[in-house]
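quick one if you have a minute, typing this from the bus. theres a chain ive been looking at and ive put its sequence and its fold in token form underneath. please have a look and point out which stretches look like helix strand or loop to you. anything you notice is useful, everything is just below.

***
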Amino acid sequence: MIQFNFATVDTLPLSGQRAFWNSLEYQLSQDDGAFREHLEQGRPVYYCDDKYPSEIIREWPDGKRDLGIVTAAGQFELLRVL
């Protein structure tokens, strides 16, 4: 499995950031158990959707979804609730 370095993703150009998140999403899609386990442990999951090409979706265990971006500091910044 690919190792992901979230601390430096903001240093990539936008195309590189998109490729990073697409790769992460692909890796997660190959292991549905990890995705569901993460939610079952009460933690949100983050993924991309082609409907929102410049943003990230954060999904909470209760099904609530947020749309946001990752800041230069590596933090999720909420844009709006979906």
User: Anything to note?
Assistant: The chain has one domain: 13-81. Residues 13-81 form one domain. The beta strands are 45-47, 56-59, 65-70, 76-81.
